[in-house]
Write a structure and sequence with these properties.
Distance between the termini: 37 Å
Largest sheet: 4 strands, antiparallel
Number of strands: 13
Strand content: 15-25%
Number of helices: 3
Radius of gyration: 35 Å
Structural class: alpha+beta
Order of helices and strands: EEEHHEEEEEHEEEEE
Helix content: 40-55%
């Protein structure tokens, strides 16, 4: 498989000694991440500051709620008292409304802060993904070739390397049309040895190079040596 870049970056180092070897958890290509790490630190700090602000604002909101409840009770108490003038009642009403608006505005500010935190967390995940994408790791795969050089600036879709999956092997054979329909029911012999393998994939369209032949594939256990010819026979039980 060909690995292409999905970010913009500059190649800092390449582990050319890993070419032809099974890769470990260590990156085989590293790109510049200095600015990304600084942005991650900045995002972390901003999120912490906003969280602290939310905590303090929620304490304020709680106090405003207590004050609002008391003012509502006071207004209900005097609203029906004939000894209180209209001016006094209106003043108490406006005081109640102002307190309620203050409470709602504070609640709105808290929600806006939480939205900001959510946006920053999403941005942090994006930057973290970029950092990971700039340290290419493919544990268990064989590094077949590297397509870039140190110092090269890569863009999105720039080919970086070719990897080989050696967890399984794949045998490709070409069948005549008369053998095609019964192929999956046949016993597969490899180099005259009977196997338990079955044909996994069949392309029911004639091959463009092997005219009148149909390609089939057999997935086998990982061999010691890849890219070699073997004798494959499909026999009846």
């Amino acid at each position: 498989r060909t690995i292409s870049s999905n970010i913009l970056g500059t190649v800092l180092s390449i582990d050319e000694n890993s070419i032809g070897k099974v890769l470990t958890k260590e990156p085989y290509i590293k790109m510049d991440i200095e600015l990304n790490l600084k942005e991650l630190k900045s995002l972390k700090d901003k999120i912490e500051y906003l969280r602290e602000t939310v905590v303090n604002s929620e304490k304020i909101l709680k106090n405003l709620k207590l004050s609002l409840d008391k003012k509502r009770v006071n207004y209900q108490r005097i609203s029906n008292l004939s000894i209180k003038s209209v001016v006094e009642k209106d003043a108490e009403f406006h005081n109640l409304i102002n307190s309620e608006n203050n409470y709602l505005n504070t609640k709105k500010e808290i929600n806006n802060l939480k939205i900001q935190i959510t946006d920053l967390k999403y941005r942090r995940e994006q930057v973290q993904r970029t950092v990971e994408d700039k340290n290419l790791v493919a544990e268990g795969f064989v590094l077949y070739s590297i397509s870039v050089k140190v110092g090269q600036v890569v863009n999105v879709t720039t080919p970086l390397a070719q990897l080989a999956d050696i967890s399984k092997g794949k045998l490709t054979i070409f069948l005549d049309d008369r053998d095609l329909l019964e192929a999956k029911n046949r016993v597969i012999y490899i180099n005259d040895e009977k196997t338990e393998y079955k044909i996994d994939r069949v392309l029911y369209i004639a091959d463009s190079k092997n005219i009148s032949k149909y390609m089939a594939q057999i997935i086998i256990d990982s061999p010691k040596l890849f890219s070699k010819l073997v004798q494959v026979e499909l026999r009846d039980e």
